[in-house]
Each structure stands twice: as structure tokens, then as C-alpha cells.
Fold:
Amino acid sequence: MKSFAKTAGAGMLVLALMGSQANGQALRGHNTNAPVDVAADRIEVQDRADRAIFSGDVIARQGDMTLSAARLTVAYSDAGGIQIDRLTASGGVLLRSPSETARGEYAIYDLNNRVITMLGGVTLTRGESRVNGARLVLSLDTGRAVLDGGSGAVPGTTSSEDGRVSGTFTVPQRQD
Structure:
């Protein structure tokens, strides 16, 4: 069971400012057809519910993307073989790609729609640039990322004191 097959413009601006890939898109080109490899301290398979729950130092990899968390629930369908539909992670979630790192309390990876949603004190980092918010939605098809402020879906967490998206961006160093 280790292998298993506030505006749109703001999201693009954030990633462009962060110096993301040539056209300002995060995780574009990620191979969503690659198998998902999962390792953890414990697994509980709930066959009747079509899910497996991994806990304890969970690491899930797909291609060059790695997700780590305290707990990961894998929802699957069994149509002639196990097909993963969704990964739900909780507890200090860290999502890494070769160019970006995202942190939050929860993450949902909808494999059918190729969308990752992170919630709860989210921080997206690329190099020395960083943005903070309550919810991050990443489309793996388009590479589009949207980060929202507000109180978020996780009680007691906000992106900043006033509930807005905030960021710090590097600038080119000039010789005077």
C-alpha cells in the first residue's frame, strides 16, 4: 500500500513578485500522473470506507513534490485496482517542490481535479520572498495560486492581525 497510482490577479501578482517560474506560476508542470508514495509510522486501512489513515511522521511524494504532516487520510476507489481520489493532511503540513515551500495546518489534495488547498496560517515561500494568508489554492494544471486573507476556515488562525494577506519580497540588488 506504499505506492498509489482574494482575486485571480492577486494570486498571479504574488507569484510573479516572488520570482516564480518564467510566467509566474507555481508547480506548473508537476506530474500529477506519477504514483504517490507514502511512508509513516502507522497505517490503518478502513476498506469498507475506502480509505487509509497514515499517522506519525507522514511523508507522501509524487514526482518532485513532497508533503509531510502528522496525519494523512487517503481516500480511494477500488475499480479493478486502488485509485487515489483525495489526500487530506493535518498537523503541521509542509508542501515542498523544487521552487516553492508552503506551510499550513491542513491540506487537501484533490487528485481528480489536480488542486491543492491549504488552510490555517498558510505561508508560501520562494527563495527569500514570502507571503502569508489563511487559505492557499494551487492548481497543478495551470500553476495558478490564490492566497486569501481573512479568518480562514481554521478557528483561531488568521493571515495577520487584520486578516489580510501579507508578504515580503526580495528586490534586485543594485550597485550604486
Q: What stands out?
A: The chain has one domain: 8-168. The CA atoms of residues 16 and 23 lie 7 Å apart.
